[in-house]
Design goal:
With 185 residues, the protein is mainly α. The protein has one domain (8-184): Up-down Bundle (Rhomboid-like fold). The chain has eight helices and no strands. The longest helix is centred in the middle third of the chain and has 22 residues, at 62-83.
Length: 185
């Protein structure tokens, strides 16, 4: 038996995120603030635009990293096999950009890092894996109600340090990609 690098994009994402986590620990969080966290910084800074994408690689601690990577490593390989690395990379980059922009413009006092938006995009996309033209999968409806409903509830009634906005925006991006890519199959 031999090891197989079965999902290069997903495994690469997890490893780059691990490296970002290591850099954050080694620098006391300075690397996260510089490269792996999006916040309301000047639009004249090139790093502002880079962080719109790289914030999904940073995490606030091991538990945050482990929670996100557990879902990404569980769901990502199936999605990468079904849609291919290029399309899945488009999902990751689109999710990063959408969550980064929404956070920048609507939550200017909040710093955002982590792959939670990507996790929710993958969750909603996965519910479209057996999508056929002219049908709406019941699994999609249930997943949307359960996951997005929970995030809306928590966003309104629970005060915590979790960005439900990133979860909701990521879920919407995943649903859109799942619908579009599912129709093309």
């Amino acid at each position: 038996m031999k090891l197989k690098f079965n999902s290069p994009l997903v495994l690469g994402f997890a490893l780059v995120s691990l490296a970002a986590m290591g850099a954050s620990l080694a620098t006391g969080g300075a690397s996260n603030r510089l490269l792996f966290m999006t916040y309301h910084s000047p639009l004249t800074s090139p790093l502002t635009y880079l962080r719109f994408f790289t914030h999904v690689l940073g995490h606030s601690g091991w538990q945050h990293y482990i929670n996100n990577m557990s879902y990404i490593l569980l769901l990502g390989p199936m999605l990468e096999e079904k849609y291919g690395a290029k399309k899945l990379l488009a999902v990751i980059l689109s999710t990063a950009l959408v969550t980064g922009l929404v956070n920048y413009f609507f939550f200017p006092g909040v710093a955002l890092c982590g792959a939670s938006g990507v996790v929710f995009a993958f969750i909603l996309m996965t519910s479209f894996t057996s999508f056929k033209q002219g049908e709406i999968p019941v699994t999609f409806i249930l997943v949307a109600v359960i996951y997005l409903g929970q995030q809306i509830y928590q966003g309104i009634f629970v005060q915590d340090n979790i960005s439900q906005m990133a979860h909701i925006a990521g879920g919407v991006v995943g649903a859109v990609f799942g619908f579009i890519l599912g129709r093309k199959k």
